[in-house]
């Protein structure tokens, strides 16, 4: 990703009075990327998008667009497309008029506007709804109008602020598919704010994880999931078992283990539940644990265990194997492949 | 009886006794006094003076409504979207007159506008005019006085409409490169159209029945329908004709309201 940084954010900060909504965020976005900004509410992800779009001014730092300093450019000069949370459609205009609005602002010819509107309507699958007002449309259809309006003037960058939060689950999946298709077809850079980790993992080429106004990690979906750089990222994306490492012997809860880490510099080891299983006789890593609870889920059972140091563990037991599902209270050993665990 | 009907029955009863029954009484009067028949209506609808008063009433009230709603729109804009200090000042300017009686305000305007009033004296002292400008006892004074009274009534429906405007829609329009003027006229104003219509209806209906302000500031020179009805009741007196006039006024206002609301439905849709 060193090639063609389209957008560069350098130490962006935003303060509201004494409150720091965003601190020292630096990242680059490449042409054609699909970047998700992911984090819990209040993490600063929407603030960052708002600053990136030019809808609010940062209190420190610098934004570059294709090498030019755009920090002081207002939204209209940046010219990025934006899909707002709640869509922000013009309620008094029809679908076609909504999509035509930015084109009219650009003073394009009537014929060119009509052509482009027809093209956008077809692209987002709203043919036949051109003359309806937004309130006569379903949530998914309004979403499409918002997308079409933001993309009508061929912006180089499209910003999306939690565009699917108002949609039900089925529709959300469908719209995610369409968004992927649009991104693939147009090659426009998409920057997408969400608090839904699955959505971010499914859609993005890279994910930027925010917490407490700071950028925690930015990397590809598999990298942030498999090699989280800190405890927050590890816990925020999916389930994870985090165990304290003994300082003395590089083991866990008194059991010396062959771990990929050095207890002098790291205090914890993390293993995803799907990488952990009940140990057999030949396994190198053998960590004693007691079964506390089990939940039957069909193909798997979720086992909740406790180490001898009282730390909780979770793993998925494959119900198709001949091994019986252990009852609560059973003492056993769990194991994992050394390369699947990582230091935190 | 259905529970809803039962629960609102006290209100219906009250309205029936205090409004519907007296109105039916007026209807009856209009057809029977002094003799049964349509003579009273014939007199109302054929008398050039009465017709000219009705026409003047509708015309002046439309002017007053347009003036009030336009002023109220600007004032509401300051009230809802201004800086905190501007908001406070505007709020005072709306609320203080609202609490002062209609009579006091009419006299206030007289003190302001009459030939020896504040404005004329000041203009003369400044040497800008030689003799007083006639600013009372005419339609100008009536429009000023009535509009001033009615502006707060237009402000409230407008404020509701403006507060309901989704800020993000304006931000979106701005982000797409629309100028402030375009955002205002093509986005903000259409989005508050329902409030404008509501304010228009409220002020217009209110203005039709105005009595004190036109009587004082018009000084008998621009008589409106309410004042004419008063004359037929207390000065002439012929209650049958006054009643017929009231019924005609009622039907005229109802008709105008019907037309406006049909148009309103189209806008709101």
Describe the 3D structure.
The complex is a heterodimer of chains A (344) and B (269). Chain A has 344 residues and is an alpha+beta fold. Chain A has two domains: 5-233, 3-Layer(aba) Sandwich (Rossmann fold); 239-343, OB fold (Dihydrolipoamide Acetyltransferase, E2P), CATH 2.40.50.140. Helices cover 26% and strands 32% of the residues of chain A. Chain A has helices spanning 45-53, 75-78, 95-105, 110-123, 139-151, 169-186, 197-203, 221-226, 231-236, and strands spanning 5-16, 19-30, 34-38, 60-65, 68-69, 81-83, 157-161, 189-194, 206-211, 214-219, 241-244, 251-252, 255-256, 268-271, 276-278, 287-296, 300-307, 312-318, 331-336, 342-343. Chain A has a six-stranded mixed beta sheet, sandwiched between helices. In chain A, strands 15-19-16-17-18 form a five-stranded antiparallel beta sheet, with no helix packed on it. In chain A, strands 2-1-4-5 form a four-stranded antiparallel beta sheet, covered by helices on one side. In chain A, helix 3 packs across helix 4, helix 3 (95-105) packs parallel to helix 5 (139-151) and helix 4 (110-123) packs across helix 5 (139-151). Chain A starts with a strand and ends with a strand. The relative contact order of chain A is 0.12. The model of chain A has no long low-confidence stretch (mean pLDDT 89). With 269 residues, chain B is an all-alpha fold. Chain B has a domain at 37-68 and 100-156 and 195-268: MetI-like (MetI-like fold). In chain B, 81% of the residues lie in helices and 0% in strands. Chain B has helices spanning 3-32, 39-46, 48-81, 84-99, 102-113, 118-125, 139-163, 167-175, 180-191, 193-208, 212-218, 225-235, 239-268. Classes of the chains: A alpha+beta (344), B mainly alpha (269). At the A-B interface, helix 3 of A face helix 8 and helix 9 of B.
């Amino acid at each position: 990703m060193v090639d063609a940084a389209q957008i560069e954010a350098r130490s962006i900060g935003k303060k509201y009075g004494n409150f720091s909504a965003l601190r020292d965020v630096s990242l680059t976005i490449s042409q054609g990327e699909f970047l998700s900004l992911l984090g819990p509410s209040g993490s600063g992800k929407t603030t960052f998008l708002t600053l990136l779009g030019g809808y609010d001014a940062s209190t420190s730092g610098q934004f570059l667009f294709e090498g030019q300093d755009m920090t002081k450019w207002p939204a209209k000069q940046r010219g990025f497309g934006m899909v707002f949370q709640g869509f922000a459609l013009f309620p008094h205009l029809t679908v076609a008029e909504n999509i035509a609005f930015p084109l009219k602002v650009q003073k394009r010819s009537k014929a060119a506007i009509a052509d482009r509107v027809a093209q956008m309507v077809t692209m987002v699958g709203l043919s036949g709804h051109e003359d309806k007002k937004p309130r006569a449309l379903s949530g998914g259809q309004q979403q499409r109008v918002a997308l079409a309006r933001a993309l009508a003037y061929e912006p180089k960058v499209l910003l999306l602020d939690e565009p699917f939060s108002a949609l039900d689950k089925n529709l959300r999946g469908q719209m995610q598919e369409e968004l992927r298709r649009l991104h693939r077809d147009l090659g426009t850079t998409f920057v997408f704010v969400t608090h839904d980790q699955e959505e971010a993992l499914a859609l993005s080429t890279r994910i930027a994880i925010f917490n407490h106004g700071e950028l925690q990690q930015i990397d590809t979906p598999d990298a942030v999931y498999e090699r989280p750089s800190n405890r927050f990222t590890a816990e925020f994306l999916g389930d994870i078992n985090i165990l304290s490492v003994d300082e003395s012997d590089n083991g866990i809860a008194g059991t010396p283990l062959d771990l990929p880490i050095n207890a002098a510099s790291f205090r914890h080891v993390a293993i995803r539940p799907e990488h952990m299983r009940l140990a057999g006789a030949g396994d190198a890593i053998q960590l004693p644990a007691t079964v506390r609870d089990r939940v039957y889920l069909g193909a798997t059972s979720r086992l909740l265990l406790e180490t001898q140091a009282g730390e909780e563990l979770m793993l998925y037991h494959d119900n198709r194997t001949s091994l019986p599902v252990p009852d609560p209270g059973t003492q056993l050993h769990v194991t994992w492949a050394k390369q699947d665990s990582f230091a935190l | 009886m259905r529970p809803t009907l039962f629960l609102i029955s006290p209100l219906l009863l009250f309205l029936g006794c205090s409004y519907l029954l007296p109105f039916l009484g007026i209807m009856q009067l209009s057809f029977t006094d002094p003799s049964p028949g349509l003579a009273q209506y014939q007199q109302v609808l054929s008398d050039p003076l009465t017709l000219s008063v009705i026409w003047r009433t509708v015309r002046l009230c439309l002017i007053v409504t347009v003036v009030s709603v336009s002023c109220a729109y600007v004032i509401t804009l300051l009230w809802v979207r201004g800086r905190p200090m501007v908001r406070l000042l505007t709020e005072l300017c709306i609320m203080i007159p609202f609490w002062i009686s209609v009579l006091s305000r009419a006299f206030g305007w007289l003190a302001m506008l009459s030939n020896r009033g504040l404005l004329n004296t000041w203009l003369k002292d400044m040497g800008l005019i030689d003799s007083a400008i006639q600013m009372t006892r005419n339609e100008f004074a009536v429009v000023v006085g009535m509009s001033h009274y009615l502006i707060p009534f237009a402000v409230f429906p407008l404020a509701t409409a403006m507060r309901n405007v989704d800020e993000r829609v304006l931000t979106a329009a701005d982000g797409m490169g629309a100028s402030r003027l375009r955002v205002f006229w093509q986005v903000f104003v259409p989005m508050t159209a329902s409030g404008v219509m509501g304010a228009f209806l409220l002020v217009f209906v209110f203005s039709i029945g105005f009595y004190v302000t036109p009587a004082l500031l018009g000084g008998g020179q621009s008589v409106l329908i309410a004042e004419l009805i008063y004359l037929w009741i207390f000065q002439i007196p012929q209650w049958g004709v006054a009643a017929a006039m009231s019924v005609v006024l009622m039907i005229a206002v109802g008709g105008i309201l019907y037309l406006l609301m049909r148009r309103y439905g189209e806008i709101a849709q």
